[in-house]
Automatic annotation (TrEMBL):
It comes from Monoraphidium neglectum. This is Inhibitor of growth protein N-terminal histone-binding domain-containing protein. Keywords: Chromatin regulator. InterPro entries: ING_fam, ING_N_histone-binding. Pfam families: ING. One of its GO terms (biological process) is chromatin organization. Residues 7-113 form the Inhibitor of growth protein N-terminal histone-binding domain. One of its GO terms (cellular component) is nucleus. Coiled coil: none annotated.
Length: 132
């Protein structure tokens, strides 16, 4: 009984941090989503500016320089978007791993449930004997 109690205490202690860890992960994903959305708007605006520019060969030297700058900025922002997406996937995997670990622990507790019920029933009988 003592080992089971110890096991349950350890499980309860391990779940104390679960909500805060999940909260932190989800808040970080939300933050990355907001940054990604703002960056997508900027990419769309700069892409529209690129499309509106004259075609190659018809641009002035200043327009050519501006085209290269915009193209470079769009490429850089797309790399950032990819990086944010990869970070969100990693955070999602961390949350999944965390939940799986706690689920496995809960299944271990469930496997102990018959033994726990027997122990609890034994205590009840000691306090309230059967009426027969």
């Amino acid at each position: 009984m003592a080992s089971c109690t110890l096991f349950l205490e350890q499980y309860v202690e391990s779940t104390n941090t679960l909500p805060s860890e999940l909260q932190r992960i989800l808040a970080t994903i939300r933050f990355l989503d907001e940054k990604s959305n703002a960056l997508r708007v900027a990419v769309a605006a700069q892409t529209e500016a690129l499309v509106a520019m004259p075609v190659q060969g018809q641009r002035s030297p200043e327009e050519e320089q501006r085209f290269k700058e915009l193209s470079s900025q769009v490429s850089s922002m797309q790399q950032q978007l990819l990086q944010f997406a990869e970070e969100k996937v990693q955070l999602g995997q961390q949350a999944n791993d965390l939940l799986q670990m706690h689920n496995e622990e809960l299944e271990k507790v469930g496997a102990q449930a018959p033994w726990l019920r027997q122990g609890r029933a034994g205590r009840r009988r000691a306090i309230w004997p059967d009426p027969t």
